[in-house]
Amino acid sequence: MIELVGWICLVISLILMLYHNYMYTNYDEAYKYIKRKYGDRLSKIELPSKEVHFNYGQKFSHYTAGFAGFLIILNLLHGE
């Protein structure tokens, strides 16, 4: 059961890392599209900055590495 939770957390952190890295690298194009699509409805919403996406991308890359390491250790312990 703990291994299943580890895999779920690994997949979620990997997806979030990829999302934030994509938003960081394509910030201008992505927010230009969002502003064009939603227009006036965005006036009440504060969009995250490019630095925020960079920081979250770094944070989730560390989480991804941590969960991968955790699963490797569990696999090594389970194999014995």
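Above is the first protein from milestone M3; the second protein from the same milestone is given next.
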Amino acid sequence: MTKAKKITLAVMAAATTGLIGWDIVVAANQQKGDTISEILNKAARNTPAVAVAWGILTGHLFWPQRVKDE
């Protein structure tokens, strides 16, 4: 595995951990509507293009693609 791949994986793991941690913090406070999912849901209701963009991004990341020989 190259150095760039290792760094990319580390950044992805840190971002995921950070977002999950933040979502737990805001879910545990007294204020309503401040979790990541609640904010995305509200944004998608106000602007349906947000939901479409999220779907396109998810499809781009997880749709089966040809694997290039390394």
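Note on the second protein: The CA atoms of residues 25 and 35 lie 9 Å apart.
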